[in-house]
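Q: I'm writing a short methods note and want an example of a predicted protein-small molecule complex. Could you take the sequence and the SMILES for S-adenosylmethionine and return the bound structure as tokens? Please keep the output block clean; save any remarks for afterwards.
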Amino acid sequence: MTGDDRDAGSGLAERRGLDEAVVYQPAEDSGLLAEAALEEAHGRVLEVGTGSGWVAQQIAEERGLDTVGSDLNPHAARQARERGVEGVVADLLSPYRADAFDTVCFNPPYLPTDPDNEWGDWMEHALSGGESGRELIEPFLDDVGRVLAPGGVVLLLVSSLTGYDEVLALVEDAGFAAEPVVEESFPFETLTVLALRRA
Ligand SMILES: C[S@@+](CC[C@H](N)C(=O)[O-])C[C@H]1O[C@@H](n2cnc3c(N)ncnc32)[C@H](O)[C@@H]1O
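A: Understood, no commentary inside the block.
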């Protein structure tokens, strides 16, 4: 994601609605999450916020693992299904039972967004992490321990724009220890995928 993405989304505010089939397409952050997942994923896999389903597809095809891709955006769940992934419409982890997955991956919407500058379409849902950038990360971390089977791993993409230290503090509060798996710096942000395991 870049600042340009946000500006582009904002300019389209009045023309786009939630009925328009806008879906986040694979970008650098998707590639980093896939790289980490191909290294760390095991067992039953859930990708939260699957977007186009590309990351989930890599895991299913390259690692041969049962992989579910879920997203709040129904157009995303449909694109995931078109890639052969089991695509589910879901708000974060709400429909899943306790201990359901051995690996949970999430490239969250993480851009800090001015509340006066929201644009109300699916691209906002894909990019905006609210004022702090962490408004989806917080409830995700609060609940992910419930759906994670013993010995499971969470792969969470974090941007420096979201506040790396603040995310680490949330991770610790949720009872996990974090270890960086892959990291890459771009002109405006550094992206890190953390592997989280129960402390
Ligand atoms: C940055 S995109 C990542 C897409 C894809 N995983 C990738 O890496 O290319 C974030 C995704 O999270 C989804 N999302 C936003 N809020 C969500 C929620 N409450 N529950 C599930 N998915 C959500 C968005 O629709 C979007 O597809």
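A: Remarks, as requested: The CA atoms of residues 157 and 193 lie 4 Å apart. The beta strands are 45-48, 67-71, 86-89, 101-106, 148-159, 176-185, 190-198.
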